């Protein structure tokens, strides 16, 4: 299915303001230092004046520093992450033991929302792979570059290491955002999912918006049916080539979602595709200037501070797990749960048993 270039009136797209910062760290002294002449360094005698021509020929030219290229990485991490087995075990315990503070809600539901092929399904499979101890593809991933493989609402319980018990985290997959009229995903449908009206397995269609006549429609959803956090997914390798209207689309979505009291974070996927050093060693991700610059661009596109955004590398062609990749994935899951917790903290106790109309 080909993408159409015209904008949709119901889901406005306008690319975010580009970042003006360059990919290298500026020098602390941008202008050359002033030269100071002293009697000890420059002594001019009558003889030297007479032989000025000879002396000038013997003078050495001033040394000017030559820069052969831009700095591609930093000496230290711009976010403190421990890339150890102990840290992996600690994060696994934090994610697997998490439970919502509201006793009426057994699991936190997180909606993954982003453009087509931004890595939503791959992220779900990758997080589950960490707990399984081997690479698995639990959420089916497509190969089309223009259309969304996921067509319906699917909720995936992240299971613990034994695979027997569910953790307190549920990742919800949904059709990807597109820039044409046939994507099947509208602002109305997205908000209906967040409010808890959409039944599990509902297949989205552009000419059949979710409504009371929808099969399985939840008329009075409880708090456990709702989405408790939204994680926007953006592809680092496509930040500069996204449709020009995605910026206004994300802004519109964030405004409506915020009105529902739902916190939002963002995952910057495919960071290994924009940084060769990170592709070789994921632990270099927070030393990469290209990743940091792309994260700034993602922040401008989404209209959010970079403190809400974390980089991610999903498992794709790998057959075996990698410690550093696991730590990065688990850090993202833990980051999401922090904002899930804020939802329940913000939700007043008197509203815990209310219904969402």
UniProtKB/TrEMBL annotation:
Q: Which GO terms describe its biological process?
A: immune response
**This protein's superkingdom?**
Eukaryota
Compositional bias, Low complexity, is annotated for: 23-51
Q: Where is this region: Disordered?
A: 23-61
Q: Where is the composition biased (Basic and acidic residues)?
A: 52-61
Q: What is this protein called?
A: G domain-containing protein
């Amino acid at each position: 299915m080909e993408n159409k270039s015209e904008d949709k009136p119901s889901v406005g797209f306008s690319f975010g303001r580009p970042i003006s910062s360059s990919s290298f760290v500026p020098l602390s002294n941008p202008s050359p230092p002033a030269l100071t002449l002293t009697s000890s360094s420059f002594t001019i005698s009558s003889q030297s004046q007479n032989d000025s021509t000879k002396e000038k020929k013997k003078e050495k030219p001033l040394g000017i520093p030559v820069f052969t290229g831009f700095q591609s990485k930093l000496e230290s991490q711009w976010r403190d992450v421990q890339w150890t087995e102990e840290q992996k075990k600690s994060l696994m315990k934090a994610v697997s033991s998490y439970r919502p503070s509201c006793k009426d809600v057994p699991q936190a539901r997180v909606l993954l929302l982003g453009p087509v092929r931004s890595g939503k399904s791959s992220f779900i499979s990758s997080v589950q792979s960490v707990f399984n101890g081997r690479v698995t593809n639990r959420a089916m991933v497509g190969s089309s570059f223009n259309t969304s493989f996921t067509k319906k609402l699917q909720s995936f319980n992240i299971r613990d290491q034994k695979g027997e018990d569910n953790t307190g985290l549920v990742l919800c997959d949904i059709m990807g955002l597109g820039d044409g009229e046939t994507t099947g995903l509208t602002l109305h449908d997205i908000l209906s999912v967040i409010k808890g009206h959409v039944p599990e397995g509902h297949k989205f269609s552009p000419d059949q918006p979710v409504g009371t006549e929808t099969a399985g429609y939840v008329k009075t959803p409880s708090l456990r049916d709702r989405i408790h956090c939204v994680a926007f997914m953006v592809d680092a390798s496509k930040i500069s080539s996204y449709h020009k209207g995605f910026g206004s689309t994300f802004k519109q979505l964030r405004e409506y979602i915020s009105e529902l009291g739902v916190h939002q974070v963002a995952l910057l996927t495919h960071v290994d595709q924009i940084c060769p050093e990170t592709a070789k060693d994921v632990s270099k991700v927070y030393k990469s200037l290209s990743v940091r610059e792309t994260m700034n661009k993602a922040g401008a596109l989404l209209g959010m501070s970079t403190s809400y955004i974390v980089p991610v590398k999903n498992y794709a062609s790998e057959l075996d797990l990698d410690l550093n990749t696991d730590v990065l994935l688990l850090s993202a899951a833990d980051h999401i749960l922090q904002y899930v917790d804020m939802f329940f903290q913000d939700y007043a106790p008197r509203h815990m048993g209310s219904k969402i109309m």
